[in-house]
From TrEMBL:
One of its GO terms (molecular function) is acetyltransferase activity. This is Nodulation protein L. It comes from the Bacteria. InterPro entries: Hexapep, Hexapep_transf_CS, Hexapeptide_acetyltransf, Mac_dom, Trimer_LpxA-like_sf. The keyword Ribosomal protein does not apply. It comes from Pseudoxanthomonas wuyuanensis. Belongs to the transferase hexapeptide repeat family. The lineage of its organism: Bacteria, Pseudomonadati, Pseudomonadota, Gammaproteobacteria, Lysobacterales. Keywords: Acyltransferase, Nodulation, Repeat, Transferase. Residues 6-60 form the Maltose/galactoside acetyltransferase domain. Acetyltransferase implicated in the O-acetylation of Nod factors.
Length: 183
């Protein structure tokens, strides 16, 4: 039996995002985001309940300040006491895991969506995803961008405005474009 485009997407294989099932999932995520982003005056516990409607996992004490944007939501896992500040974007075509106690500054962008390097494959409209995993007690400064396939170790620090193109070891501090370890 042929695999659906959604099954291919979730497996990190080439897929076509224009598929009807994926478009319906994105429409549902957009409707959810409209509700979540309009709920900025609700208590944190009620906003967390909204997150649990859409995300794969939401730990106790997790907070996202609206506005927030994602592709699907169902591939996002937040640990306990995770904090995402205003205007964060997560392109979650595959899993994004954010560990306990991690703090994410405003306007941070986390991308799992990727595209073939071969121009003919890219022309076909096919794309794929690579998971992003962020450890515990990480601090990600405002405006940072994490590219597909990145793993960030526990206790790491990513400077504001950094573009993370490679894995960040536990306890490391990285800054710049591309982000490089300092100190």
């Amino acid at each position: 039996m042929a695999r659906s485009e959604k099954q291919k997407m979730l497996a990190g294989e080439l897929y076509h995002a224009g598929d009807a099932e994926l478009q319906a999932d994105q429409a549902a995520a957009k409707a959810w985001m409209a509700r979540f982003n309009a709920a900025s005056t609700l208590p944190a516990a009620e906003r967390r309940a909204l997150l649990r409607e859409c995300f794969a996992a939401v730990g106790d004490g997790a907070v996202i300040r609206p506005p927030f944007h994602c592709d699907y939501g169902y591939n996002i896992r937040l640990g306990a006491d995770v904090f995402l500040n205003y205007n964060c974007v997560i392109l979650d075509v595959v899993e994004v895991v954010i560990g306990d106690g991690t703090q994410v500054g405003p306007a941070v962008q986390i991308y799992t969506a990727d595209h073939p390097r071969d121009p003919q494959q890219r022309c076909s409209g096919a794309e794929f995803g690579r998971p992003v995993r962020i450890g515990r007690n990480v601090w990600i400064g405002g405006g940072a961008i994490l590219l597909p396939g990145i793993t960030v170790g526990d206790d790491a620090l990513i400077g504001a405005g950094s573009v993370v193109t490679r894995d960040v070891p536990a306890g490391a501090t990285v800054v710049g474009n591309p982000a490089r370890a300092i100190g």
